[in-house]
């Protein structure tokens, strides 16, 4: 099985469409189609059913996936191990973090890295989805869940907390909610269920069943913007409050704590450029604690 063809097969399997796989791999759709056809011809098997809803793997495709995934794991491991021998302070480092963590911490770390090592290029991906470090979707990730994969190295960065906030205009119009009423008579801002299922069932320990979800978003920055716009009450990290003077904290005694971890694959621990970025991130967080 040719690895170049296999990686395209894996992308189609995971995304479900030829166009989506081509976008992930940053190649054109025609090339992806030719590579898949070449793989099917070499294996003398149909790997996908082409349906209006996308590419559905056949039984042969399911078997091929297991083999191709083992090839991918071996290729990624070899690349990580070679990177681990790289002492150059240049090249690409991929960092994954939420939008709010990127804005408040990672940007400053990148600024410091560029000041000392201008040949390091940081590729920053923001979102609340967890990047797969073993598949090299990122070299470094900042997560709020401590990893249990023994291949991953993790370092505790900080313990932060979230509180409830609303704009002054919202509170002038609707008043402050009363504890124990499950936000009766109030509008709430929440993550989309598809992004964080069950997250909006309670905010800072208060059930939301009597409140009205007025806005659902898919990022922390959009929650901030919605609260600032006076669209409702939202749960925000308290360390952001000094930058948001138009917001009022509701029930200041209530807070929910969360931890942040810096995570990397063990094979990259000695890669100079990865260590330089990791050290800068750690330094920024230490100064914020």
Could you explain how this protein is built, in words?
- This is HTH-type transcriptional regulator DmlR.
- InterPro entries: LysR-type_TF_proteobact-type, LysR_HTH_N, LysR_subst-bd, WH-like_DNA-bd_sf, WH_DNA-bd_sf.
- It holds the Pfam family LysR_substrate.
- The protein has 289 residues and is α/β, with parallel strands linked by helices.
- The chain is built from 8 helices and 13 strands.
- Helix 1 (3-15) crosses helix 2 (18-25) and helix 5 (99-116) crosses helix 8.
- The protein starts with a helix and ends with a helix.
- The model has no long low-confidence stretch (mean pLDDT 88).
Helix-strand topology string = HHHEEHEHEEEHEEEEHEEEH
Beta-strand percentage? 25-35%
Give the tally of β-strands: 13
Oligomer: single chain
Structural class: alpha/beta
Write down the Rg: 23 Å
Count of helix runs: 8
Helix content: 25-40%
**So what's the overall shape?**
globular
The first-to-last residue Cα distance is 51 Å
Largest sheet: 7 strands, mixed
Query: Mean of residue pLDDT?
Result: 88
InterPro entries: LysR-type_TF_proteobact-type, LysR_HTH_N, LysR_subst-bd, WH-like_DNA-bd_sf, WH_DNA-bd_sf
Organism: Achromobacter mucicolens
Protein name: HTH-type transcriptional regulator DmlR
Keywords: DNA-binding, Transcription, Transcription regulation
Topology:
Elements: H1 3-15, H2 18-25, H3 29-43, E1 48-51, E2 54-57, H4 59-83, E3 91-97, H5 99-116, E4 120-126, E5 140-143, E6 152-167, H6 168-174, E7 187-191, E8 202-203, E9 206-207, E10 212-217, H7 220-228, E11 234-237, E12 247-250, E13 256-265, H8 272-288
Helix pairs in contact: 1-2, 1-3, 1-4, 2-3, 5-8
